[in-house]
Amino acid sequence: MSDKVTNIVAFIMLFMMGGMAFSSSLGDSLTMDELSHIPAGYSYLSQRDFRINPEHPPLIKDMAAFPLLFMNITFPSQSPAWTDGVNAQWWYGWELLFNSGNNADQMIFWARIPMILVLLFLGWFLFRWAKKEFNKETALLVLTAFTFSPTFLAHGRLVTTDVGAALGFVLATYFWLNFLRSPTRKNVIIAGLIFGFAMLLKFSMILLIPSLGITTIAYALAARKSLFRYILLSIAAGIIGVAVVILPVYIWHTSNYPAARQVADTIEILSSSPMPTLRNIVVWMAGKPILRALGHYFFGLMMATQRTAFGNTVYFLGMISGSGWWYYFPIVYLMKVPLAFHMLTLAALFLAALIMIKAPFWKNPLQRLREWIVAHIASFSMIVLLIIYWGASVTGNLNIGIRHILPTFPFIYMLVFAAIVAGLKEIKNPTWKNSLSYLIIFLILWYASSSLSSYPSYLSYFNEIGGGPDNGYKYVVDSNYDWGQDLKRLKTWVENNKVEKIKVDYFGGADVKYYLGDKAEGLDANQGPQKGWLAISATSLQGGEGNPVPGYDQPTGYYKWLDEYTPVTRAGKSIFIYHIE
């Protein structure tokens, strides 16, 4: 296949992905984090004030809010959520979107468009990198896995930071490798600028520092380069990222944020921080005109790490806990990623082992390892990143969705398909080679079809191990299944079935009254059995059905009475509708 044909195929796949992401987003109501991210971004660009949602850097939210600057939007500057609240992100988000006379659906629509563009740019860059680093076959396979990934399709059309984080890891790693291979002044500067850009996408990007650090040391030692020189250049790149990118962005975003307010907010939010020394330093920086912009960046970083350490209430495998399980992400990954890809991963491991057998590492292993690192520094950097990122994920307590490990997916795709393509070339027996090639093609088609069949409910996708999209909620919810995306579908069902009153227990970012008006009534789960029409989000339902782990002292079991009833239907996949006489 020529380069021209390869590029045309890639363009067609990205065009398909854009179409699937755009069209499937039209029926989705506001999801939980969008309630914070969209209004926060608009406040940054219109007010140059970073009091809302500082636990995430601003760049993704800025991108989402940019189209909103061309709309006639009323800013609730007199709302207590803005004037008095301390990071009152959910309250303020509700005020801006649903209580200020603004067209919420129009704002949500336009805010999601830049996110889809970020998704497509990531796909294009991933294809470009895989093609340059490996070959055309690997690049097309990687792009196929990306294009039909239910998880990328689910979150790439929402205003969240997870796909942006994936882009940051990919870009930063790529340009850092360019600097390692050719440490020219130009490459060092570019690596530093991209590093700074990446750090503005999500605070999980802090994991780039150990990942790129280990990669740099390993490459310098393996290639017998000057380690001291590489360390100095790495520090220079880091300084460029902070001084030229991060600092100016935060100076602009905090320029209208009152200094006294910043200090007060910092003190209150970090009052329970387990790192008092760092907390005091950040509070001190917030009060210094020269340092307060950088202090606000470290403040957000501390908020993010504090939340990861403390965790949150979560339903998982029939249990309710306020902290995490180390096996949460491995099991969610097993159930949420298409089964065909797991089989492709096993095929890649088999073929990688075949390559290693043909060039055994046990003969002079140190020398062979050094040669392999120099020749395959990209693959080595990906492996290092996967170990560090997954290690941080399984040891943290923040278990709220597969989206948190989404930044590792592009590197898994490249490693899997690079091993498959390279391994197939090592097989000399035509029969075995053809058989395995046909198996790979079958698995790719199965992978794509499983994604297509879940349209438009990508957020609720589960593979066969997880019982499919209809049953995944039995194992895990929140952003894995139900993030509030089906409220507009509930509205359509209520209107079509001429339901006059329905009690709603909704989990998500949208406002029930905004869509259902007086037809909606609140459903107090603590009141016990209810009658009439009921609509309950899967996250709320499982939160009231799960069993508490030892030590969990919040109310549970309040929806167990529904076990004897069967839902009449669902709105989308995630809102269960009951009619109880």
Shape: globular
Instruction: Please indicate the count of domains.
Output: 3
What composes the largest sheet?
5 strands, mixed
Strand content: 5-15%
N-end to C-end Cα span: 64 Å
* SS content category: mainly alpha
Helix share of residues? 55-70%
Number of strands: 8
List low-confidence stretches: none
What's the overall average pLDDT, rounded?
95
What is the multimeric organization of the chains shown? single chain
Strand order of the largest sheet: 4-3-5-8-7
Task: Report the radius of gyration as a whole number of Å.
Answer: 25 Å
Given the structure, what is the number of helices?
Answer: 24
Structural features, described:
The protein is mainly α. The chain has three domains: 31-253, no CATH class; 328-454, no CATH class; 472-580, no CATH class. It contains 24 helices and eight strands. The protein has helices at 3-25, 34-47, 59-65, 80-83, 89-98, 104-133, 136-147, 150-155, 162-181, 185-199, 208-222, 227-253, 259-269, 276-286, 292-310, 328-336, 339-358, 365-375, 377-395, 409-426, 430-452, 487-496, 512-516, 538-543, and strands at residues 314-316, 319-321, 502-505, 520-522, 532-537, 547-548, 569-571, 575-580. α11 (208-222) packs antiparallel against α19 (377-395), α12 (227-253) crosses α15 (292-310) and α13 (259-269) runs antiparallel to α14.
